[in-house]
Structures are given as structure tokens and as C-alpha cells.
Amino acid sequence: EAQVTQNPRYLITVTGKKLTVTCSQNMNHEYMSWYRQDPGLGLRQIYYSMNVEVTDKGDVPEGYKVSRKEKRNFPLILESPSPNQTSLYFCASSLLQGETQYFGPGTRLLVL
Amino acid sequence: TQLLEQSPQFLSIQEGENLTVYCNSSSVFSSLQWYRQEPGEGPVLLVTVVTGGEVKKLKRLTFQFGDARKDSSLHITAAQPGDTGLYLCAGSRRLNYGGSQGNLIFGKGTKLSVKP
């Protein structure tokens, strides 16, 4: 089944404790992206990747890192999480930039 | 600057009513997509419109792309409780170089609630 998977689905952590949210797609898509979704602000892009080893900042990259060592995986790293990073995070992939995005199920993060 | 404005933000109606939600911009998009997101899940694509003036139907849902490719509407006929969700429009603009697409730009969404 074609899908985007994210782990974990739910995470509660404390300020400053490094965490990684994994994202994997099995559709051989070149383009992958991370979004955060907050009430009243909609979906905002954090980082995106056009292909392996090619990543770029989205609209709200501060406090986040990404890597794309393999085509299928695109982890999101929070080196020192802060409470303002409490949000619902979505990973998405598409064949190419600008095309239909396939979203993962979301990761709900709470930073205390 | 919000490039894609969706209206209304919230809509609560009774089962069987018709409704229209709008997605407007001052920018031209090469394509526009509509997604539906249910609580606790990621957005799922409903339709993509590409040609100015294009109309697409998906059962009781009718999507229209404006002639100038700056706006779009989604009309639902005889709404059902199963239509409840967040409806997002997303546009893609052609970059000046190479003709490739830029990143998708999402509107903030219309939250629809259909009561039985």
C-alpha cells in the first residue's frame, strides 16, 4: 500500500531534550516536506527536500533540522525543543515539487 | 502575506443543505488542489484543477477554477454528516526559470460541520 508513515504519532517531552520524528514514504517520490499545523495559522512549511542530499528552508525553519540521506526517509530533528514548538506535524511527499502531496498521519508534539 | 484566502473560515449547516466555499488570491496559479482533512488525520487530495474555467465533479462536490486561474470554489450539494472536515485549497505557481513548479501554498482552510 502506497503510504507515508510517521513516528511517533504522539510525543510529550520537556524543553531542551533533543528529539527526532521519522518520516518514510514507499512511493519513490523525489519531493518530501515537513509542515506544522496550528489553530488559526493553517499549514506552514518547515523544510523541504527536492531529492537526496538536497534540502531547503520553508517558511518557519527556526529550531528545526532535517536530513535526506536516502530517498525514502526525511527525519525532522528538534535539537533543543521549546514550548512554542508544541504543534501537529505532518510529513508529506510528492513525485515532484508542486504536485499532489501525500500526507502522513501526523505527529502531535507537546513540549513542556 | 497570505497568498490564498479561504472563506468562510467556519461553516455549520444542517444535513441536506447546499454550500459553497471559496479560495481567492491575487496571484495566478498553474494548478490548484483541494484537500479534505478529518480530525486526527492528514489532508487527503480531492481534486486538482489546471485549466482556467475548468469544472470538475466528484459525486456531490463540484470544483471550479476561475478563468484567470486566481480563484476556485467548492460547492457541495445536499451535504451529509460525512462531509464534515477541514477543506484546504493549495496552489502551485510556475517558477520563472525552467518552467518548474514552486512549493504548494496552502490556504488556512474552511472548517465544515454538517449536523444530522
Architecture overview:
The complex is a heterodimer of chains A (112) and B (116). By secondary structure, chain A is mainly β. Chain A has strands at residues 4-7, 10-13, 19-25, 31-38, 42-51, 54-57, 65-66, 76-78, 87-94, 102-103, 107-111. In chain A, the strands form 2 sheets. In chain A, strands 2, 4, 5, 6, 9, 10 and 11 form a 7-stranded mixed β-sheet that branches. In chain A, strands 1-3-8-7 form a 4-stranded antiparallel β-sheet, with no helix packed on it. In chain A, a hairpin with a 2-residue loop joins strand 5 (42-51) and strand 6. The model of chain A has no long low-confidence stretch (mean pLDDT 95). With 116 residues, chain B is an all-beta fold. In chain B, strands 2, 4, 5, 9, 10 and 11 form a 6-stranded mixed β-sheet that branches. Chain B is globular and about 50 Å long. The chains are: A mainly beta (112), B mainly beta (116). The A-B interface holds A 4, 33, 40-43, 45, 48, 58, 90, 92, 96-106 and B 30-31, 33, 40-45, 48, 88, 90, 92-93, 100-104, 106-109.
How would you describe this structure in keywords?
heterodimer, A: 112 residues, mainly beta, seven-stranded mixed sheet, B: 116 residues, six-stranded mixed sheet, five-stranded antiparallel sheet, 11 strands, globular
Question: Would you spell out the secondary-structure blueprint of this structure?
Answer:
The complex is a heterodimer of chains A (112) and B (116).
Chain A: E1 4-7, E2 10-13, E3 19-25, E4 31-38, E5 42-51, E6 54-57, E7 65-66, E8 76-78, E9 87-94, E10 102-103, E11 107-111
Parallel strand pairs in A: 2-11
Antiparallel strand pairs in A: 1-3, 3-8, 4-5, 4-9, 5-6, 7-8, 9-10, 9-11
Chain B: E1 5-7, E2 10-14, E3 19-24, E4 31-37, E5 44-49, E6 55-58, E7 61-65, E8 71-76, E9 85-92, E10 105-106, E11 110-115
